[in-house]
């Protein structure tokens, strides 16, 4: 059986990716995985500073993330996740919304998302992982 898995990647927290990959390896023992890696660049429209950031900064960030995804592809080519295929995406917008939108579009059966240990910021503002868990229509595996 093939299982479609969405893996959001936060390039500011690459340490979490190693933990996620180890879970993907374990999952691939039981099922063939179609893994979709997604990196979301937060839209500057969400922030007050959008007027100061402008489209040039957004384009620069997208280019930086595409390079990082390219590096991720190379790094994962050396990782043996048996019985799997991988696809990579970059999206711009609200991370939770883009993750949920992509999960629905690819009909993901599982979202595997890394989460930092909670801190004061998480409790006050909420984290992307907890927000995805709250609104996802599919199962979510949160990796710490």
Automatic annotation (TrEMBL):
Highest rank taxon of the organism: Bacteria
Family: Belongs to the universal stress protein A family.
Organism this protein belongs to: Proteus vulgaris
Chain segments annotated as coiled-coil in the UniProt record: none
Protein name, per record: Universal stress protein
Limits of the UspA domain: 1-144
Pfam family, one: Usp
